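Our consortium's second objective concerns turning raw sequence data into structural hypotheses that experimental partners can test. To show how far this objective has progressed, the report includes one record in full. It was chosen at random from the queue rather than selected for favorable results. The single chain below, 403 residues long, was entered without modification.
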Amino acid sequence: MRQLRFTMAAAATALLSMVNPAQAQDPVLIGVSIAQSPPGSVVQGTQVKDGAEIIAKMINENGGVLGRPLKIIYEDNQGIPEKGRAAAEKLISRDKVVAITGGHQSSVCLAEIEVAHRYKVPYVNTNCWSDDIRKKGYPEVFNPGNYNTRVSTAMAETIIAMKVKNVVAFAENTDYGIGQAKILGELLKEQAPDINYKYNALDRAGKDFTPAVLPLRANPPDMVVNVMLPPAAYILMNQLYEQGVAPSAKTWFYDGAGIADYPDFWQNVKEAGQYMLAFGLYHPEMPMPEIGQQVAQTYQKEFGHEPNRLIFQGADSVLQIVRAIEQAKSTDSEAIIQALKDMEYEGIRGKFKLSQEPGYTYQQWVDIPYVTYQLTEVNQPLSKTVLIQATGQPLHADKLVKP
């Protein structure tokens, strides 16, 4: 009997030796906190998750992380700060993740980073734009995504180049929305004081913005700026269009929230989206590293439509944590944090090193590339939109089309 047991044990050992080493060890756990149900931006959460899933599969097919499989644990924060705080607590305390990422709504990120800071666990901010996140100066928080000052600076340059004189912005009543609208106003006042600018804060959970839209019928501005996320942004766009305010021969509609490449954009806005000018973080005409091209091809093959920026940002956030673990040769939080701080990262969207300057650029990809483009036809795919401007290039106003 003893010999039989020995033989069985030897056989089991031999079988394990035939398995991929990354499958024979405990997985490396990364936590992803996203909105998977209302009132949060579910479409954003879905895109971040899709990107994370694509890169996780690629990593595991190439041997995992330090010879161990990568496993992502998801938590639904519903776009609510308190839910985000609870999600971060659970991921760190119960699930024992080595890092957290996925954040795509600023108010939630601001809650979650407090937890990450308390536990000294690395937190990679996927898409929370509020400058206040960077200004906290937490050494655990890293920002390879976009930030409000970057957007507002780009938008101010575009608005000035278009020579408009009266601008009205609609901002959601969140840290992101109000923060970006305020920065845009400050930049315009400083750089073009002759432009009349004001913003209105709207409830992100609102269903009817007609009372805010109707006054613009009698005195239409030269431009309406959107600083709201779906579904509120879609409601606002439709009501502006239905009331004949924007887009119109008199009034441009300029989206600063990056919503034009969402997969549900056209089905929700239809004609209201035609002629919209958009700030974006991805366009097929932008240069993309080989791994970024692989992610794009995988997404298009799997889902049947073009990827958007959040696919790349979700994938990049996970990959950056993995690269830091590999550089540190450890899953220890302190070692990962130091690696994220020191390394030059080459990932899905390009190569960069995070700034260590205090303030809104702290541990931030400062020169994150952006584009300005215009949608000229209903149901127009991103690849067919008209590229008006790319990072470091002047605006080609002659390409703009009005109704």
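The partners drew two points from this record. Confidence is low (pLDDT under 50) at residues 1-19. The domain at 149-280+370-399 is CATH 3.40.50.2300 (Rossmann fold). Both points have been shared with the crystallography group to help prioritize constructs.
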